[in-house]
Write a structure and sequence with these properties.
114 residues, mainly alpha, AhpD_core, AhpD-like, CMD-like, 5 helices, single chain, AhpD family alkylhydroperoxidase
Length: 114
């Protein structure tokens, strides 16, 4: 695949930095919500990232896939664990989720090789 997921996270981060400056209240609210949602409580951080990856695949958001793949690699997820998450996403989302799962595997491979 030709997509550079590592560069995608860099590029999107640059643009969200502009939004943080230009729409401060909105972005602060989003960041607070993200922090609260991702905080380990009854579910650990890895489980919450698995959910986010599955949703990113189902919603067909490549930048989301990139960021959640990066986070999962950083959390030490194994390839087998990652693939099982994608299997559930395919089960729930059918063919379109299968296509985006292929993108998610490429993102995993790129971040794992880094």
């Amino acid at each position: 695949m030709a997509t550079d997921y590592i560069q995608m996270t860099v590029d999107v981060s640059k643009q969200t930095a502009v939004l943080r400056k230009d729409i401060t209240e909105t972005m602060s609210g989003f960041s607070a919500m993200a922090g609260a949602a991702c905080k380990a409580n009854a579910l650990d951080a890895k489980t919450k990232e698995y959910i986010a990856l599955g949703m990113a695949v189902a919603l067909r958001c490549e930048p989301c896939i990139a960021f959640h793949a990066k986070a999962l690699v950083k959390l030490g997820v194994t390839r087998a664990e990652y693939e099982e998450v994608l299997g559930v996403a395919v089960y729930m989302g059918g063919g379109p989720s299968l296509m985006y799962s292929a993108h998610a595997m490429e993102a995993f491979d790129q971040f794992s090789a880094k």
